[in-house]
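Hello,

Our lab assistant flagged a job as stuck in the queue for most of the afternoon. It eventually completed. Since we weren't sure the result was trustworthy after the delay, we are filing this so someone can double-check. Below is the sequence as submitted and the structure that was eventually returned. Let us know if re-running is recommended.
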Amino acid sequence: MIEHFEQGPIRPPSEAGSLLLRFTRNCPWNKCAFCITFKGSRFERRPLEEIYSDIDTIRRILDELYHSADQQRLSSVTDERFINFIMTKPQFDYQYKTLANWLYRGSRTAFIQDANSLIMQTDALTAALRYLREQLPEVQRVTSYARSNTVSRKSATEIQEIHEAGLDRVHIGLESGSDEVLKRIRKGTTAQQHIDAGVKLVANGITLSEYVIPGMGGRALSQKHAQETARVLNAIDPHFIRLRSLRVIPGTPLEEMVRKGEFDPPDDEEIVQEIRLMVSALDSVHSYLTSDHIRNLLEHIQGLFPHDKHSMLQRIDEYLAMSPDDKLLFRLGRRAGRLRTPEEIRDPLIRRQLQEARRDLGQHYGDIEEAITDLGKRFEIGQHP
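-- returned structure --
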């Protein structure tokens, strides 16, 4: 069975269970100093005929999968016997198995790729969304990445039309609310465009996730970055605020800036302090803040404003109050992908294992900080995904 529909390279962690459909290829801006995801790739708007063809292909595969479940006398595609049957039969290729897994998990969400689907002409985007909704009624939520300067150029009427055609949620890389930082990292947008776009999306019924990169101002602009980002978020009041702590990706312009001494990246401690400053300044939002990425040191900093603000600050302060030795052990375990919360180092077995790892890595590297940095590089594949 050979059927094919095109999929792009990235999606947010929160869309891990989503069906991926590619409306555009790569990134139309592709100049951000911190990102390498689409470097060397040309942006393309896919013709509607291609998008329709992919949706038709998905429809055919889904129908075949439903038929296979009936043949196996299964009452539901969420039956474990269904997924086991599809995964073990060689006649089903990767995309059949991808869609079978989507049916089995029952997530019923779709993510439109690649980096900025809203750059499509509004009539083309709404036509594609309507066709998706008509042909795949299983889909209950549709989400996409977008850029603020793209959204800000569309009218409120256009955004409303896009929402009514089927787009429910948008992820935007805010990165920073400081114009100085945005210019320095070549974001191609301004703080006011971030506000205009965010307010427009929220006002027209689209759920909004804003991504923030703690550390993006470097040491020189850390305070301004935190305070101005909070100011912009207070003005937007997005549904979600998602943290993606800075990691300098090899091969990016930002790495070259570091090499030339033009950018001094903060360390883990300074990034935590910066997050605290931003959270404390968020006083006009009703957003849910989440730290849902392995790159973040403190994954457990999450909650709904204003209700959970105090508890989030308390968790940050608990980490900052830890001894230097405990902080180092936690950072080692976190960067190795072993720990999720600082409390875990209180477990005697885990603590002993981390102490042994610190000793061994210290002997190998000579500098334990270099070892921790190297461990963290395993997750340096981009900033948002």
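-- support follow-up --
The delay was a queue issue, not a problem with the job. The result is valid. The chain has 15 helices and ten strands. Confidence is low (pLDDT under 50) at residues 381-385.
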